[in-house]
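Collaborator request, handled under Task 6.
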Amino acid sequence: MALITLVFGLPSFLVSIDFIRFLITGKRIYHRIFNRILEILVLIGLPLFYLIVIDESANDCCSDSATFAPEHKITIYTIIIICILAYFLSTLKKHISSPVIETLINTILLGGIILNIMISIQVKSPFWLFGNLPVVLFFIFELIKNQQKLADYSTSFDPETLNKIEKIAWRILHSKLIFKIPILLILCLPILVLVSGFLLIFGQKPDSVIRVFTDTYKHGFSQLDYLCDNVQCGGHFLCSVAANGHRAIVKPQRAGERKGNPIICNRQLLIANAFEELIEQKTPKTHRFIRQNYNKVGDFIHRYYGIFNSKIIADIVYVLMKPLEWIFLIVLYTFDQNPENRIAQQYLNQTHRRAIKNQEK
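Structure tokens returned to the collaborator:
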């Protein structure tokens, strides 16, 4: 955690100091070369670090979940790349481009600011101070610089030499900020439409730019949190799934309690848990090995919980688990003095478990 804080925090601190100095004096602190290194680190390094190292690759109810919907990530990645390219193109050009190009660059830079604000809301953690804030500040720097260049250039330029489209772009660029910013924001929409239309070739959907934020769990714009309402994390393994099948097949016996949550218990689930408890008591090392590998099964089920929540799938799992149930029962009757008592006390609260154990004395 300290490494992550340092990696994200130091660039943000340096950029913030530069921005405060610029607001007070109108001058930047760092040398051009150092500033370029800082730009590359903030605009390329930090996003890659977050997306590769920190962000999750899938939606998951029971652990850290993907910031962006996995099915729509191509859209958000493309938009981020376009914003970064527009920024570096703006910093590399030595002279004012045509009014249309200047309008396009400024529109994308302003869109990049809005995008980072949306991402910071989506992340819903202090990381936005380290990752999104310096990006926003760099984009603001560039917008201010472009405005200053346009103001200087307009004194020696005759707009009457422009065609109709260029004249419209020129008027937008030279309008007051109170009018210019809303116009540029409106111009972001056709750009998004063009990008979305192009990405249809790669399997993205027309509304992917929205769903990349909403089709997620536990984030700022997430709309799928309801899918996690009935998910009991750490508990949906094979026998647990099987117990949720049709009553005539899986034969539920009673309610139980796991981590404070009510669950349905059938004989198969009780036998499986009793077997695990016995193994844990008799051979702890073997139990740890089995549990570590079996947890991978649980992770898989958590990831595709919508499928395993089907009663038909639960029935199938129940039937497939029958041979293992018989093996577990044989082991229990072979190595436990009171196997039925052990089976009966599974998924009970401590008071009821003690009552059953007292019967053994």
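The cover message to the collaborator said: "The CA atoms of residues 13 and 130 lie 8 Å apart. Residues 2-227 form one domain. Please let us know whether this matches your experimental observations."
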